[in-house]
Amino acid sequence: MLRNVRKKLREIEFFHNSYMRVKRRFNSELLGMTTKTEQNYFARYGETIYSGKGEIVDLGCWLGSTTIPLAQGLLKNPAFSQSERKIYAYDLFVWYDWMNSSLKGTNLAGKYKEGDSFLEEYKQRTAEYSSRIEICAGDLAQIGWNGREIEFLLVDAMKNWDLSNAVVKNFYGSLIPNESYVLHQDFGHYFTPWIHLLQWTFRDYFEFAADVPKSGSVVFKCTGKIPVELLSKTYSFESFTGEEANAAYDYSMKLVPPEKLPNVAAAKVMFYVHQQQIEKAKTEFENLLRQGIPLEKDMAVVSEMIQNM
């Protein structure tokens, strides 16, 4: 039974990676992991919100569809253009087979195989802005951060607990109270339930700032300095009681608009699926339906998933 569940979880992860890249690409102007509405938000943030008080960090830049619109907006803003600041762009820049499905019909189809570096592709796509980009190639947990204050933290790297803990430990301590924004690209996606647990844990130090429609992105503003003891902990599912988990997902579901509600609810189901507690996942799924969560979007995805477990 457990072996079958583990196999299914690996299949789910592959599906998640492929599905999100395909979904985002066909809604975007730039080839990458973002929708057009996200690209518009990045550009608008750079041009109209960024104040110049801290650094810009892009965690998970892939082929540049986060970095490019950020750079375009920032270069219209004197707070950035007249400074020496750069965008710090993090990625492994290592190709995985699941990325191929997002490139069908493009000039990159079939170009890379598992394990290849695509760093040169990123450099080519962002060449126009290269003087304002600091490329951080490799494992962000190993690279870490230089300790400077961060004004905008774009997070598309919380794909598991290890990466999530690394983001918290390395970057959250550099956020500037009442100035910094954190954008979670996977807040509105079923596969990453840990994001909700962590944002709830730090709820006294953030406030909801914006929803980016037609995407998974949600933006929070940092309102206070997060205590070191919270940042230095290593979090896991075992760090949260059932009561605390319920409170975390209720918190998130109250923040998001109806468009994202089924996706955040589905993340609550995944809280149990990732722990291989399939019967609890099924019970929670039925409870959410009874509460009026519509059977659509990611709720439909997890419905099919748990039925096959």
Q: How would you describe this protein?
A:
The chain is of the alpha/beta class. The chain has a single domain, classed as 3-Layer(aba) Sandwich (Rossmann fold). Helix content is 43%, strand content 12%. The protein has helices spanning 2-25, 36-49, 67-74, 78-81, 119-125, 140-143, 161-171, 194-201, 228-231, 242-255, 261-273, 278-290, 298-307; strands at 55-59, 87-91, 133-137, 150-155, 181-184, 206-211, 218-222. Strands 3-2-1-4-5-7-6 form a seven-stranded mixed sheet, covered by helices on one side. Strand 2, helix 5 and strand 3 (133-137) form a beta-alpha-beta unit. The longest helix is centred in the N-terminal third of the chain and has 24 residues, at 2-25. The chain is globular and about 55 Å long.
Share in β-strands: 5-15%
Largest sheet: 7 strands, mixed
Low-confidence stretches: 18-27
Based on Cα principal axes, name the global outline: globular
Q: CATH class, please?
A: Alpha Beta
Number of strands: 7
CATH architecture: 3-Layer(aba) Sandwich
- The order of strands across the largest sheet is 3-2-1-4-5-7-6
From the 3D structure, determine the CATH topology. Rossmann fold
The count of helical stretches stands at: 13
Sequence of secondary-structure elements: HHEHHEHEHEHEHEEHHHHH
Write the layout of secondary structure elements.
Elements: H1 2-25, H2 36-49, E1 55-59, H3 67-74, H4 78-81, E2 87-91, H5 119-125, E3 133-137, H6 140-143, E4 150-155, H7 161-171, E5 181-184, H8 194-201, E6 206-211, E7 218-222, H9 228-231, H10 242-255, H11 261-273, H12 278-290, H13 298-307
Parallel strand pairs: 1-2, 1-4, 2-3, 4-5
Antiparallel strand pairs: 5-7, 6-7
Helix pairs in contact: 2-3, 8-10, 10-11, 11-12, 11-13, 12-13
